[in-house]
Amino acid sequence: MIILLFVAAISCFTLQNICFKQFSSQYMKNATSYFMFNAIYFTIICALYVIAGVNFSLFDLAMVSLGLLFAISFVSAMFFYMKAMEHGPLGLSFLFFSAGLLMPVAFGIIFYGDPAPPHKFVGLVILAVAFYISTRGGDKKRNRRESSQLNADSNKVSRKWIVYILLGSLGNGAIGIAIKLCRIVISEEALIEFLFLGFGQAAIISLGIGCFLIWRFRSSISHFRAFPFALVALGAAVSTAAGNYATVALSLRISALVQFPIVSGFLVITAILTSRIVYKEPVTKRHMVTIVTGLIGIILLSL
Questions:
Q1: Domain count, the chain
Q2: What domain range includes position 136?
Q3: Which of 119, 142, 229, 301 ranks highest by number of CB atoms within 10 Å?
Q4: 182, 66 in Cβ contact below 8 A?
Q5: What are phi and psi of 88, to 5 degrees?
Q6: Backbone angles phi, psi at 87, to 5 degrees
Q7: pLDDT band at residue 237, thresholds of 50, 70 and 90?
Q8: Alpha-carbon distance 207 to 78, whole Å?
Protein backbone atom coordinates (compact mmCIF):
# COMPACT_ATOMS: atom_id res chain seq x y z
CA MET A 1 0.00 0.00 0.00
CA ILE A 2 2.81 2.42 0.90
CA ILE A 3 4.57 1.77 -2.42
CA LEU A 4 1.33 2.43 -4.30
CA LEU A 5 0.89 5.71 -2.42
CA PHE A 6 4.44 6.76 -3.34
CA VAL A 7 3.84 5.97 -7.02
CA ALA A 8 0.49 7.79 -6.93
CA ALA A 9 1.96 10.90 -5.28
CA ILE A 10 4.93 11.14 -7.67
CA SER A 11 2.83 10.45 -10.78
CA CYS A 12 0.07 12.88 -9.80
CA PHE A 13 2.40 15.73 -8.90
CA THR A 14 4.32 15.24 -12.14
CA LEU A 15 1.03 15.62 -14.04
CA GLN A 16 0.16 18.59 -11.82
CA ASN A 17 3.45 20.29 -12.75
CA ILE A 18 2.68 19.82 -16.45
CA CYS A 19 -0.84 21.24 -16.05
CA PHE A 20 0.42 24.22 -14.05
CA LYS A 21 3.15 24.88 -16.60
CA GLN A 22 0.59 24.75 -19.42
CA PHE A 23 -1.71 27.12 -17.57
CA SER A 24 1.02 29.60 -16.66
CA SER A 25 2.36 29.72 -20.22
CA GLN A 26 -0.95 29.77 -22.14
CA TYR A 27 -3.80 30.97 -19.93
CA MET A 28 -2.39 33.02 -17.03
CA LYS A 29 -2.89 36.45 -18.57
CA ASN A 30 -3.27 38.22 -15.21
CA ALA A 31 -4.04 37.62 -11.54
CA THR A 32 -7.73 37.27 -12.38
CA SER A 33 -6.93 34.30 -14.60
CA TYR A 34 -5.09 32.60 -11.75
CA PHE A 35 -7.79 33.04 -9.12
CA MET A 36 -10.65 32.03 -11.43
CA PHE A 37 -8.66 29.00 -12.58
CA ASN A 38 -8.26 28.11 -8.92
CA ALA A 39 -11.97 28.51 -8.26
CA ILE A 40 -12.75 26.16 -11.15
CA TYR A 41 -10.34 23.35 -10.45
CA PHE A 42 -10.69 23.57 -6.64
CA THR A 43 -14.46 23.14 -7.10
CA ILE A 44 -13.83 20.05 -9.25
CA ILE A 45 -11.53 18.71 -6.51
CA CYS A 46 -14.27 19.18 -3.91
CA ALA A 47 -16.74 17.38 -6.18
CA LEU A 48 -14.30 14.46 -6.49
CA TYR A 49 -13.97 14.25 -2.71
CA VAL A 50 -17.76 14.32 -2.30
CA ILE A 51 -17.99 11.42 -4.74
CA ALA A 52 -15.29 9.62 -2.73
CA GLY A 53 -17.46 10.05 0.38
CA VAL A 54 -17.19 13.09 2.63
CA ASN A 55 -18.56 12.59 6.15
CA PHE A 56 -19.77 16.05 7.12
CA SER A 57 -20.37 14.97 10.71
CA LEU A 58 -16.59 14.78 11.26
CA PHE A 59 -16.12 18.52 10.77
CA ASP A 60 -14.94 20.41 13.85
CA LEU A 61 -13.26 23.74 14.66
CA ALA A 62 -9.74 22.29 14.58
CA MET A 63 -10.30 20.77 11.16
CA VAL A 64 -11.84 23.96 9.78
CA SER A 65 -8.91 26.01 11.14
CA LEU A 66 -6.29 23.67 9.68
CA GLY A 67 -8.21 23.61 6.42
CA LEU A 68 -8.11 27.42 6.31
CA LEU A 69 -4.34 27.43 6.91
CA PHE A 70 -3.96 24.86 4.14
CA ALA A 71 -6.21 26.91 1.82
CA ILE A 72 -4.40 30.23 2.26
CA SER A 73 -1.00 28.56 1.98
CA PHE A 74 -1.96 26.59 -1.13
CA VAL A 75 -3.47 29.55 -2.98
CA SER A 76 -0.48 31.82 -2.29
CA ALA A 77 2.17 29.13 -2.86
CA MET A 78 0.81 28.04 -6.23
CA PHE A 79 0.40 31.64 -7.40
CA PHE A 80 4.06 32.41 -6.85
CA TYR A 81 5.14 28.99 -8.13
CA MET A 82 3.29 29.56 -11.41
CA LYS A 83 4.79 33.04 -11.69
CA ALA A 84 8.23 31.51 -11.11
CA MET A 85 7.61 29.02 -13.94
CA GLU A 86 6.83 31.97 -16.20
CA HIS A 87 10.27 33.45 -15.53
CA GLY A 88 12.46 30.39 -15.05
CA PRO A 89 12.96 26.72 -15.96
CA LEU A 90 10.61 24.10 -14.53
CA GLY A 91 13.39 21.96 -13.02
CA LEU A 92 15.00 24.75 -10.99
CA SER A 93 11.62 26.20 -10.02
CA PHE A 94 10.42 22.91 -8.58
CA LEU A 95 13.73 22.29 -6.81
CA PHE A 96 13.58 25.50 -4.80
CA PHE A 97 9.82 25.28 -4.39
CA SER A 98 10.48 21.93 -2.67
CA ALA A 99 12.99 23.63 -0.38
CA GLY A 100 10.00 25.00 1.51
CA LEU A 101 10.14 21.77 3.56
CA LEU A 102 12.69 23.65 5.68
CA MET A 103 9.75 25.39 7.38
CA PRO A 104 7.98 22.27 8.75
CA VAL A 105 11.40 20.90 9.78
CA ALA A 106 12.13 24.11 11.73
CA PHE A 107 8.57 24.15 13.08
CA GLY A 108 8.98 20.64 14.44
CA ILE A 109 12.34 21.47 16.04
CA ILE A 110 11.08 24.65 17.72
CA PHE A 111 7.59 23.63 18.86
CA TYR A 112 7.65 19.83 19.14
CA GLY A 113 11.21 19.13 20.17
CA ASP A 114 12.15 17.25 17.01
CA PRO A 115 15.87 16.40 16.93
CA ALA A 116 18.19 18.89 15.22
CA PRO A 117 21.27 16.87 14.23
CA PRO A 118 24.23 18.65 12.53
CA HIS A 119 23.45 17.22 9.09
CA LYS A 120 20.27 19.34 8.94
CA PHE A 121 22.35 22.50 9.25
CA VAL A 122 24.77 21.12 6.65
CA GLY A 123 21.78 20.55 4.35
CA LEU A 124 20.66 24.15 4.88
CA VAL A 125 24.12 25.46 3.94
CA ILE A 126 24.25 23.23 0.85
CA LEU A 127 20.80 24.43 -0.20
CA ALA A 128 21.92 28.05 0.18
CA VAL A 129 24.98 27.31 -1.98
CA ALA A 130 22.73 25.74 -4.63
CA PHE A 131 20.54 28.83 -4.66
CA TYR A 132 23.60 31.06 -5.05
CA ILE A 133 24.85 28.96 -7.97
CA SER A 134 21.46 29.16 -9.67
CA THR A 135 21.30 32.96 -9.48
CA ARG A 136 24.84 34.06 -10.32
CA GLY A 137 25.69 34.96 -13.88
CA GLY A 138 28.27 33.26 -16.04
CA ASP A 139 31.71 34.80 -16.70
CA LYS A 140 32.43 36.64 -19.95
CA LYS A 141 34.60 33.93 -21.48
CA ARG A 142 31.96 31.32 -20.91
CA ASN A 143 29.30 33.63 -22.27
CA ARG A 144 31.28 33.98 -25.49
CA ARG A 145 31.94 30.25 -25.68
CA GLU A 146 28.34 29.17 -25.01
CA SER A 147 26.54 32.35 -25.99
CA SER A 148 23.28 30.97 -27.28
CA GLN A 149 22.73 28.55 -24.41
CA LEU A 150 23.75 30.89 -21.64
CA ASN A 151 21.79 33.81 -23.06
CA ALA A 152 18.72 31.65 -22.90
CA ASP A 153 19.72 30.59 -19.41
CA SER A 154 20.27 34.13 -18.16
CA ASN A 155 16.88 35.15 -19.50
CA LYS A 156 15.33 32.23 -17.66
CA VAL A 157 16.76 33.01 -14.23
CA SER A 158 15.85 36.62 -13.47
CA ARG A 159 15.33 38.75 -10.39
CA LYS A 160 11.60 38.24 -10.72
CA TRP A 161 12.17 34.48 -10.68
CA ILE A 162 14.17 34.80 -7.46
CA VAL A 163 11.41 36.78 -5.73
CA TYR A 164 8.61 34.52 -6.96
CA ILE A 165 10.37 31.26 -6.07
CA LEU A 166 11.28 32.50 -2.58
CA LEU A 167 7.66 33.49 -1.91
CA GLY A 168 6.42 30.23 -3.42
CA SER A 169 8.81 28.25 -1.24
CA LEU A 170 7.51 30.05 1.87
CA GLY A 171 3.94 29.18 0.87
CA ASN A 172 4.91 25.56 0.27
CA GLY A 173 6.50 25.48 3.70
CA ALA A 174 3.25 26.70 5.23
CA ILE A 175 1.45 23.83 3.44
CA GLY A 176 3.95 21.45 5.04
CA ILE A 177 3.21 22.90 8.49
CA ALA A 178 -0.53 22.42 7.92
CA ILE A 179 0.06 18.78 6.95
CA LYS A 180 2.36 18.27 9.96
CA LEU A 181 -0.37 19.61 12.26
CA CYS A 182 -2.83 17.36 10.43
CA ARG A 183 -0.79 14.34 11.53
CA ILE A 184 -1.12 15.48 15.16
CA VAL A 185 -4.74 16.65 15.26
CA ILE A 186 -6.63 14.66 12.62
CA SER A 187 -7.08 10.90 12.32
CA GLU A 188 -6.74 8.98 9.07
CA GLU A 189 -10.52 8.48 8.98
CA ALA A 190 -10.98 12.25 8.51
CA LEU A 191 -8.41 12.64 5.71
CA ILE A 192 -10.89 13.32 2.90
CA GLU A 193 -12.82 15.71 5.14
CA PHE A 194 -9.66 17.73 5.88
CA LEU A 195 -8.79 18.01 2.18
CA PHE A 196 -12.40 18.85 1.28
CA LEU A 197 -12.39 21.71 3.79
CA GLY A 198 -8.97 22.89 2.64
CA PHE A 199 -9.79 23.02 -1.06
CA GLY A 200 -13.35 24.16 -0.41
CA GLN A 201 -12.15 27.21 1.50
CA ALA A 202 -9.46 27.76 -1.14
CA ALA A 203 -12.18 27.76 -3.83
CA ILE A 204 -14.23 30.35 -1.91
CA ILE A 205 -11.18 32.58 -1.34
CA SER A 206 -10.14 32.33 -4.99
CA LEU A 207 -13.65 32.99 -6.30
CA GLY A 208 -14.03 36.01 -4.05
CA ILE A 209 -10.71 37.54 -5.12
CA GLY A 210 -11.33 36.68 -8.78
CA CYS A 211 -14.78 38.29 -8.81
CA PHE A 212 -13.41 41.40 -7.11
CA LEU A 213 -10.65 41.71 -9.73
CA ILE A 214 -13.18 41.29 -12.55
CA TRP A 215 -15.38 44.00 -11.01
CA ARG A 216 -12.51 46.35 -10.14
CA PHE A 217 -10.35 46.06 -13.25
CA ARG A 218 -12.88 44.77 -15.81
CA SER A 219 -10.64 41.76 -16.38
CA SER A 220 -11.74 39.07 -18.81
CA ILE A 221 -11.38 35.31 -18.72
CA SER A 222 -12.93 34.70 -22.13
CA HIS A 223 -9.80 32.76 -23.16
CA PHE A 224 -10.94 30.01 -20.76
CA ARG A 225 -13.58 28.99 -23.31
CA ALA A 226 -11.04 27.14 -25.44
CA PHE A 227 -11.43 23.36 -25.17
CA PRO A 228 -7.77 22.71 -24.19
CA PHE A 229 -8.35 24.81 -21.08
CA ALA A 230 -10.97 22.30 -19.90
CA LEU A 231 -8.38 19.52 -20.17
CA VAL A 232 -5.81 21.57 -18.24
CA ALA A 233 -8.33 22.35 -15.47
CA LEU A 234 -9.51 18.72 -15.26
CA GLY A 235 -5.94 17.43 -15.24
CA ALA A 236 -4.96 19.90 -12.51
CA ALA A 237 -8.00 18.92 -10.43
CA VAL A 238 -7.55 15.15 -10.68
CA SER A 239 -3.77 15.25 -10.12
CA THR A 240 -4.04 17.69 -7.20
CA ALA A 241 -6.88 15.79 -5.51
CA ALA A 242 -5.19 12.39 -5.82
CA GLY A 243 -1.67 13.69 -5.17
CA ASN A 244 -2.58 15.51 -1.97
CA TYR A 245 -4.65 12.54 -0.75
CA ALA A 246 -1.66 10.24 -1.31
CA THR A 247 0.72 12.72 0.38
CA VAL A 248 -1.38 13.16 3.51
CA ALA A 249 -2.11 9.40 3.62
CA LEU A 250 1.64 8.73 3.52
CA SER A 251 2.25 11.27 6.29
CA LEU A 252 -0.15 9.30 8.51
CA ARG A 253 1.59 5.99 7.79
CA ILE A 254 5.32 6.70 7.68
CA SER A 255 7.82 9.19 9.04
CA ALA A 256 8.41 12.43 7.18
CA LEU A 257 12.11 11.49 7.29
CA VAL A 258 11.32 8.78 4.74
CA GLN A 259 8.49 10.44 2.84
CA PHE A 260 9.98 13.83 1.92
CA PRO A 261 13.34 12.67 0.47
CA ILE A 262 11.74 10.02 -1.72
CA VAL A 263 8.87 12.14 -3.04
CA SER A 264 10.92 15.33 -3.46
CA GLY A 265 13.84 13.50 -5.04
CA PHE A 266 11.77 11.73 -7.67
CA LEU A 267 9.73 14.85 -8.39
CA VAL A 268 12.87 16.91 -9.01
CA ILE A 269 14.03 14.25 -11.47
CA THR A 270 10.67 14.14 -13.27
CA ALA A 271 10.57 17.97 -13.34
CA ILE A 272 13.99 18.03 -15.02
CA LEU A 273 12.93 15.43 -17.59
CA THR A 274 9.66 17.26 -18.27
CA SER A 275 11.49 20.58 -18.57
CA ARG A 276 13.92 19.15 -21.10
CA ILE A 277 11.75 16.70 -23.08
CA VAL A 278 8.34 18.38 -23.12
CA TYR A 279 9.23 22.09 -23.00
CA LYS A 280 12.70 21.94 -24.63
CA GLU A 281 14.13 24.18 -21.92
CA PRO A 282 17.95 24.33 -21.95
CA VAL A 283 19.66 22.38 -19.18
CA THR A 284 23.16 23.78 -18.76
CA LYS A 285 26.00 22.44 -16.63
CA ARG A 286 25.22 25.13 -14.07
CA HIS A 287 21.60 23.94 -13.90
CA MET A 288 22.70 20.34 -13.34
CA VAL A 289 25.19 21.33 -10.62
CA THR A 290 22.47 23.40 -8.95
CA ILE A 291 19.91 20.60 -9.11
CA VAL A 292 22.26 17.90 -7.79
CA THR A 293 23.54 20.18 -5.02
CA GLY A 294 20.05 21.32 -4.07
CA LEU A 295 18.74 17.76 -4.04
CA ILE A 296 21.51 16.74 -1.64
CA GLY A 297 20.57 19.67 0.61
CA ILE A 298 16.88 18.73 0.58
CA ILE A 299 17.64 15.09 1.45
CA LEU A 300 19.90 16.12 4.35
CA LEU A 301 17.19 18.47 5.66
CA SER A 302 14.68 15.61 5.55
CA LEU A 303 16.80 12.97 7.29
A1: 1
A2: 2-302
A3: 301
A4: yes
A5: -155, 170
A6: -110, 5
A7: very high
A8: 15
